[in-house]
Specification:
By secondary structure, the chain is mostly helical. The protein folds into 2 domains: 137 residues, no CATH class; 76 residues, no CATH class. 58% of the residues lie in helices and 0% in strands.
Length: 239
């Protein structure tokens, strides 16, 4: 988000052909000022949830080209208001702390859960799984991220123990866990579901598996008891 907003100013004259102004540019700039005021409000009357929504709308407008044709003199001071806001500093501070702590997997989940539910959602939206330039995001929601982190920890811990403990490497699950560890996408909901099934846990009821994934995992039913583990249950497929 920061990089996108910081590239909003118009390039120097002659750098490239003039860009046609976006329709309703004046109204869009006025809306931008309103959104920036919401993000930067320190009166206590505006919640972080409202600030986050305003920030998201600014991001959407930028990606949709609603400021095309504007000059840096028009937009840069407004963007700077948001960049220097306490809201932005709060997000950046949490991000920097997480980088410094270098947490992974279940440890990262524990750290995130030390925040209030509202701040957890804030961190999810702006640090853990921000919206990409194409409008997509890596994880559908905070619960999906937590489940995936827990699944990653289970696989990592199992494979680490297998290096030093012959009994773990002799476990019938070893070959299946190794296949999962070698899969290309270990952040996919289908991968998370496979890991939880393998370790005897019920996948989250929020998982929305594709038809392809269901052919590998089986029909996962919320709150159902996990099926007993059987060697070879995990297909060697990339899903």
């Amino acid at each position: 988000m920061t990089d996108a907003l910081n590239t909003a100013s118009t390039p120097a004259a002659g750098a490239r052909p003039a860009i046609k102004a976006a329709p309703n540019l004046a109204q869009n700039l006025e809306k931008l000022r309103t959104l920036a005021a919401i993000v930067a409000d320190e009166s206590g009357a505006t919640s972080d949830k409202a600030k986050s929504a305003a920030y998201k709308e600014t991001h959407r407008m930028f990606l949709d080209g609603e400021f095309m044709g504007s000059s840096g003199a028009d937009t840069n001071p407004i963007f700077a208001t948001m960049m220097n806001s306490e809201f932005k500093k709060k997000i950046d501070g949490a991000r920097n702390e997480m980088i410094a702590l270098d947490l992974h997997g279940a440890d990262e989940v524990k750290y995130i859960e030390s925040y209030s539910p509202e701040d957890q959602q804030l961190l999810f939206d702006w640090v853990l799984s921000p919206v990409n330039h194409d409008g997509s995001r890596q994880y559908a929601d905070l619960d999906s991220w937590k489940k995936n982190m827990e699944a990653l920890s289970k696989v990592q811990d199992f494979m680490a123990k297998a290096k030093t403990d012959p009994a773990v490497k002799a476990d019938p699950k070893f070959a299946e866990v190794e296949k999962l560890w070698m899969m290309a996408d270990t952040s996919a909901p289908s991968w998370t579901a496979l890991v939880l099934q393998l370790f005897g846990e019920t996948p989250s009821s929020k998982l929305d598996l594709s038809d392809k994934a269901r052919t590998v995992v089986g029909d996962v039913k919320p709150n159902a008891q996990p099926a007993p583990y059987e060697p070879g249950a995990v297909a060697s497929k990339r899903v």
